[in-house]
Structure formats: C-alpha cells, structure tokens
C-alpha cells in the first residue's frame, strides 16, 4: 500500500504538505519495503517519479541514517534502524503481550497457526504469530501486510466499522486477488461481513491461500464497538467439515472475547 492510500489521501493527487521531502522519503521506503529484492536507483526513479538527482540525495541521507542499506551492486533494501521503530511500536502496544497471555493460558489451538493483526487502511498488519506444526504453505510473520478483504482477521475487523466506513475505506482500486476464490466486489464482501455480525466469527475459505481455511474474530477494548484487532486460526481446507468449522468459529470467538476483556471491553457472553 502506498503512503497516500494508507493516510487516506487521494492517490490521484499529490499530498498537500509543507514538507515534500518527507513524503518523497516515505514513498522511497514504501517501494523498497515492498520489494523482495534490492531495488536499483533507476527502478526507484520509475516507481516514485522522483528525479534521479533528487533521488540520489534522498537515498544517500536514508543510507546514512541506516533507514536504507545500499548493497555492493547499488541495489537498496530496508536498513536496520527501522527495527527500532517496529520494536517501539510493539512495546507500546500491550495487546501483543495480552494476546500471548491469553493464548498460552488457553487449551485451544495449541498446535495450530494463530495470528493477531490490526487494520491499517485497507490492509491488515500482523502483530503476533504462532505458526503451528501443520504445513499450510504459508508462514505468517510479524509485520506481514495483506489486503483486509481476503483475510479472516480483516473481514472480522471490517465488519465492526460504522455503516459506510468500510465502503469508503475500499472505495479506491480493489486489491488484486490473491487466489481464484478472493472476494471480487464490495457487495460480496458486505455479505461476508453480515455473516460475521450474525455468527460472531469470519471465514476465509481459500481467499488468502488456496487449500487453507481460516476462522477469525474481532477483538475490542474499552473504547467501543469498533474492533482494535483481529484473531484468526488457520487449517488445511480438507481437515474441516461444516460442523467442525462451526465449532472452531465459536472457539476463536471465545478466545477473542477473552482477549477483549483483558483489554477492558465488557464481557460479551
């Protein structure tokens, strides 16, 4: 996701600011962070639209600040300094500590993959992950970002937004599908969100990864009815029938309720 999209700015218009160099630097970091390979200066120029002369100076500064690492071939990756910010964010977010306490005390999902994520614009970002012993074909990592409409936690959190807010959040370009099953339109997603509100848990049946089914539930604190996070548990699709899925949905809902109470939300029992 671009910085403009994450902040709610119109992606078709330049962000109005008195500090354009900061916006350009964040755009550079976004492009580098999104790439699995070192990014060359020419590629950065094409992706960001920043003139090479200006880009060169910005990158030199980011390298000196250890926000970017320059490799011998000139390609750039994220620098080590950003981990300090990530650790500070996690240390200030006691939800991760409470999640671990609830999960470790629970007898449910001891061998399964359980994740905690928060909503960031139209994406989810994973704050904590316990990867189970079943080979799901995907390994969840702290900091991983995925389109909210395709994930169990994303569907769960979106279902708690005020009327129209979810539609506004997804009013821009619909995210590229991750699988053939990925929900393709907002009306279809709205039906799934209605199911979450009705049953108390969400279902991602192969929308994030084929052959995997995830059950999620929203997590609340004392601030109100808008979810502050989402919990999910993942299985291989061929392990789950309808009755088992209902049981798992109730279990993840119960686990999310326990976490919510620890965060100050009233009991939903």
UniProtKB/TrEMBL annotation:
Keywords: DNA-binding, Transcription, Transcription regulation. GO terms for molecular function: DNA binding; DNA-binding transcription factor activity. InterPro entries: GAF-like_dom_sf, HTH_MetabolicPath_Reg, Tscrpt_reg_IclR_C, Tscrpt_reg_IclR_N, WH-like_DNA-bd_sf, WH_DNA-bd_sf. GO terms for biological process: negative regulation of DNA-templated transcription. PROSITE patterns: HTH_ICLR, ICLR_ED. Residues 19-85 form the HTH iclR-type domain. The keyword Amino-acid biosynthesis does not apply. Residues 81-265 form the IclR-ED domain. Signal peptide: none annotated. This is IclR family transcriptional regulator. It comes from Pandoraea faecigallinarum. The lineage of its organism: Bacteria, Pseudomonadati, Pseudomonadota, Betaproteobacteria, Burkholderiales.
């Amino acid at each position: 996701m671009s910085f403009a999209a994450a902040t709610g700015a119109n992606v078709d218009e330049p962000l109005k600011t008195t500090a354009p160099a900061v916006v350009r630097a964040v755009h550079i970091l976004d492009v580098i962070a999104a790439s699995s390979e070192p990014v060359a200066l020419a590629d950065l120029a094409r992706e960001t639209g920043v003139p090479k002369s200006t880009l060169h100076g910005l990158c030199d500064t980011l390298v000196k600040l250890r926000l970017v690492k320059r490799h011998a071939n000139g390609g750039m990756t994220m620098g080590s300094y950003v981990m300090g910010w990530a650790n500070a964010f996690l240390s200030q977010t006691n939800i991760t500590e409470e999640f671990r306490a609830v999960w470790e005390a629970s007898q449910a999902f001891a061998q399964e993959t359980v994740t905690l994520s928060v909503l960031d614009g139209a994406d989810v970002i994973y704050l904590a992950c316990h990867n189970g012993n079943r080979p799901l074909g995907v390994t969840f990592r702290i900091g991983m970002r995925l389109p909210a409409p395709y994930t169990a936690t994303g569907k769960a959190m979106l279902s708690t937004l005020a009327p129209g807010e979810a539609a506004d959040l997804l009013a821009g370009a619909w995210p590229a599908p991750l699988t053939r099953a990925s929900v393709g339109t907002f009306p279809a997603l709205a039906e799934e969100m209605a199911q979450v509100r009705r049953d108390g848990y969400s279902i991602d049946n192969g929308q994030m990864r084929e052959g995997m089914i995830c059950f999620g539930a929203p997590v609340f604190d004392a601030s109100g009815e808008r979810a502050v996070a989402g919990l999910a548990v993942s299985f291989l699709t061929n392990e789950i029938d309808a009755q088992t899925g209902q049981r798992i949905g109730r279990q993840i809902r119960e686990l999310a309720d326990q976490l919510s109470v620890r965060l100050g939300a009233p009991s939903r029992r």
